[in-house]
Amino acid sequence: MNNSLSGEPTVTVVGGGFGGLSAAAYLAAAGADVTVLEQHDRVGGHAGVIERDGFRFDSGPSWYLMPDVFERFFDHFDREPDDYYDLERLDPQYRVFWTDGDRVTVRPNRENIHEIFDSYEDGAGDALADYLDEAERNYELAMNRVIYPGRDSIREYVDSDLLPLLPRYRLFGDMDDYVSRYVEHPKLRQLLEYTLVFLGGAPHNTPALYSVMSHVDLNLNVFYPEGGIAGVVDAVADVAREQGATIETGVEVEAIRGRAGEFTLATGAGERHADAVVSNANPAYVERELLDPADRAADPGYWESRTYAPSALLLYLGVEGDVDPLAHHSLVLPTDWDPHFESIFDDPAWPENPAYYLSVASKTDDTVAPDGHHAVVVLVPIAPGLDDGPERRAEYRDFVLADLAERTGVDLRDRIVVEESACVSDFAARFGDPEGTALGLAHTLRQTGPLRPDRRGSVDGLYYAGAYTRPGVGMPMCLISGEHAARAVVEEAPHATPSAAPSRPR
C-alpha cells in the first residue's frame, strides 16, 4: 500500500485485534493521527492470553499458518517477522487420533504425507500430489488476483485478470464432492478437509475453493512463533506504535455518532472525536449496540439470518506430568464426523461423538508451563447459540476428558492443577459475537468474497476490519482486512493528496 495523507486526519480504530492493529499500522504510516481504543486490558481481541501460576495459554487461535502473509505485512514497513519473534517449523505438524484406535503423524515433508495416503488407498499418494499442486496454483491465483487486491463487488470479478480462474468452476461446488474426485477413503478425505474448521465451515457447506488450505497446511507447513500467538499480537502492535499510532487499553466505546469528518465516540472515559472510524468490533455488534437506529444498514433480522461459524468449548488446563503421545497440535476425529457437523449447522446440539483439537504448546516452548508440567488447551467446536450454563459445561467437560483418555490414552483428570474455560456465553459477553460464535461468519458460498459484509460501513467514514468482513476468518485474513480498510480510508479521505491512492498489490 503506497500512500500518503495530507492534513494528518484523525482516525479512531475501535478494537485492537489483528484487523484493528493492522489498519492502525497502515494508516499511521500513511500520515493519519491514529488512536486504537481497546476495551480489554491488552490488545489481541480473540487472540488473547491467559497467565496463571506459571502457565501461559493462547486463549484463541494457536496455529501459525500462511507465513507469507505475515512476511508481506512486516515487509511493507521494512521489517521482518524475525525482528520481533523467532519461528519454529513444527515436526510433527500434528498427530491425528481416530476413535477406532487408528492414528497418523503428519510431518512437514511431502514424502511423509505421500506415504500416509498410499497406506490407506492405492494410488492416493500420487492423487495427493496432483491435489496439492492444483491447490498451490489456486492459492497463488486467489491471493494475488483476489485476496490482496481486495475486490469489493461482483462487478469487479468481471476482469481479464481473473480469466485463469474460469476453468476452475468446480471450486464453487462443495468441498466434500471436490475432494472425493481425488481420494475415496474417508480418513484421507478428513485429512484434506479438517482445515475447514479454521474457516468455520463444514465439508458440505464450504466452497471447494478453500481446498487451498491444504497447500497452506502441507506445502507451506505449520509454525510456532516465539511467545505463542500473543507474541505475534505484540509484534503487530509494536509495528503500529512505531508508525506513530497510539494504543489505549481499558477504554470501551459505547456509541458512535456522526459521519466522516465529524465523528463523536462516547466512552466511559469521555468523548473522542475523529474524522474516520475503523471498527475491528464486528458489524453486527456495531449496528445493534453502537450506532443510532437511523444509521444502521440492516434490520436485526439480517444478522439473525446469517450462517455463523461454530462456537467452542475451550478448556485451558495446567497439567502435571507427561502427556505423550499428544503432539504440539493433535486432532481427535470420529471415523464418521458428519453427525458432529450436523449438530453444529443443521440440528444444533452438544455433539455426542465430537471431533476436537488439542494444543500442547509446552511440547515446543518450555516457558509456558512450570517444570514437570504441560499447558494443554482442548477445543471442541459446538453450535453457536447453545445453552452453556454451568451444569451443562461441567457435564460436557467431564465427558470430553473421559473421551480423551479413551481415544488417546492420555488421562488428565487427576493431574489438573490449573483450569480455566470459555464457551458460547463468554464469546457473546466478551466480544459481542452474535450467538456466541467463536469465529464469526462461516465461509459458505453465500458468505464468501464479495458476498461477505462490506468493509465500508453504513455511515460515510465508517469502515470495518476483522473476520466478519472481507477477506474472512483467520489471523492472516484479518491482517489483510486491516490493509484493505486503511486503503479505503485513504482513497476516500478528503485529506488525500492526488497521488495518495494506494496501489493495488500485484
Automatic annotation (TrEMBL):
Any Gene Ontology biological process: carotenoid biosynthetic process
Involved pathway(s): Carotenoid biosynthesis
Gene Ontology MF term list: oxidoreductase activity
Keyword annotations from UniProtKB, A to Z: Carotenoid biosynthesis, Oxidoreductase
Keyword ATP-binding found: no
Keyword Metal-binding found: no
Pfam families in the record: Amino_oxidase
Domain Amine oxidase: 19-489
Entry coiled-coil feature ranges: none
InterPro entries, alphabetized: Amino_oxidase, Carotenoid/retinoid_OxRdtase, FAD/NAD-bd_sf
Superkingdom to which the source organism belongs: Archaea
Ranges that cross the membrane: none
Signal sequence, start to end: none
Protein name in the entry: Phytoene desaturase
Organism from which the protein derives: Halobellus ruber
Chain's gene name: crtI
